[in-house]
Amino acid sequence: MMTIDKKVVESLRSNYGDAFYLLDSDQFISNFKELKETFSHIYPHFNIAYSYKTNYTPKFCRIVKDLGGYAEVVSEMELEIAKRVGCDANKIIWNGPIKNFEIMENFLCAGGTVNIDSIEEMAYVKKIASNHLDKMIHIGIRCNYDVYDGVVSRFGFDIDSDDFVKALSFIQNTSNIKLINFQCHFAKRQVEYWPARAQGMVDLIDRLGIIPERIDIGGGLFGKMEDTLKVQFKAHIPTYQEYALAAAQVFADYFNNKNIKPELLIEPGSALVGDCMKFLATVKTIKDVRGKKFATVLGSQKNISMSGVNPPIEIIAMGQEQKEYKDLDIVGFTCIEGDVLYHNYTGKLAHEDAIIISNCGSYSLVMKPPFILPNFPVLDICGNQVEVIKRGETFSDLFRTFSFA
Fold this sequence. Notes:
It is a single chain. With 405 residues, the chain is an alpha/beta fold. It is built from 14 helices and 18 strands. The strands form two sheets. Strands 1, 11, 12, 13, 14, 15, 16, 17 and 18 form a nine-stranded mixed beta sheet that branches. Strands 2-3-4-5-6-8-9-10 form an eight-stranded parallel β-barrel, surrounded by six helices. Helix 2 runs parallel beside helix 3 (58-66), helix 2 packs parallel to helix 10 and helix 8 packs parallel to helix 10 (240-254). The longest helix has 18 residues, at 25-42. The mean pLDDT is 96.
């Protein structure tokens, strides 16, 4: 990404307004390649299924497709994104607790993989299989077991339950259904839970005597972040290498002397995209209220999807006289008291200065609601020219589905 200075900010503002996201596609490519190489060095038959829900910007999704990764989707909306960026059905994995069954039927018949999450989904898969005896249906099972993280996850089948036995038996005894993979998902990102995640899959395979084509141990990895952000977490922020040693090594050891070596997948989102977007906001007011200083910006905490921490920031002086402030809160445009982007900033600041907030790639863009203002443009400035990834939203974009009658 090009260096962002006063001249660049002036140029971008003149064309795209006073707030926008900056997308770093080069960093995303670098992260994908590094993460894949790190795991593959330990367990060569490895691939990445990118978590669309974390940031479904089509350019990121297309990069994953071009680099040979899978699309991991959790809704028919995300499935449509995968199709539109050119993903083949056999490179799309559909997870999630709720699925549109009509769309799922078409997807399965096209060669996609669905990981079933419940006995109710299994019943629908049974209907699909009976209606399409000429099709080989690829099904995975989402598996739920204890990884000793203190959480009873709501996703997948309890592997010690009757429902799991029924689902597995149904798949194994239906001629046009193929068990393509076992999958799991656990939310806690700390690396100390990853060995149990991997070992739980190995133990299940060993117990059942079944080795599917793929083993998918889900997502839940911390991404790269600046040191100023790292120190605000109580937990250690692991490297890609630490995650790989914790999980891939378990599979490398288990399958070392076996003829069959299934493809190992993980489903990262933040680990790939967290440091690949910045958000630029503009200071619109600075005031003192009963001794407390506030700078209000065109931008919101909802644009950065970070709370409880101060994000990495850079102030670009835009020409007006800066003053020195202490314990100033940088707050958003919304009418919510808790809309604070940065607590207790100490340093120089002036009206119209640009504030660049880093590590905004995870969940920010996709979770920004149409609250008070439409969302801002997304720009990629990695190349020689600005690429508009997403234009700024308009009133018509948000209200075309409403009736004003």
